[in-house]
Amino acid sequence: xxxxxDDPPIEGLPCDVDAERFVLGSVLLDDxxxxxxxxxAVDDFSVERHxxxxxxxxxLRDLGEGIDRITVANRLRERNEGSDDDFSxxxxxxxxxxxxxxxxxxxxxxxxxxxxxxxxxxSHKFTVECSLRTTEPAELLTGYQARIEALNMEWVLAEGGxxxxxxxxxxxxx
Length: 174
Hints:
Elements: H1 17-29, H2 34-37, H3 48-62, H4 69-78, H5 86-93, H6 103-132, H7 137-158, H8 169-173
């Protein structure tokens, strides 16, 4: 599918463009599927154009509108994020999707790549902060640890894991 030069993911960072495309394409084919993908964050998508499409989908859902190629293309124009080939780009998002979409698997792939990408970006940021030598090491380490723990929590929650003791109390309440 056509991705413009300003769209490629940052070189070398984990991504799966086809999983992103199929997640978005599944929603375009059946907007009820948005309920399954609505917990994603915009930055879970590695391609900027996919981020814009997902943002438009979220806007439409928040407004109580249907989600399809026409409404998404229109929303992109309303947000001044549209381009001349939006409709053909949206058509290409579902090209090659299996008849029985494996949305749960694609979401897992997308979330995994997103967390890995964020971890790499946090590590790079930490490296830059260390090389600047403008902050005390203890403060740098504490900040980095907090950001990595937040990423770990994001991963645990995305995988349906237990993150707090309070989360397991209902299991014993029965």
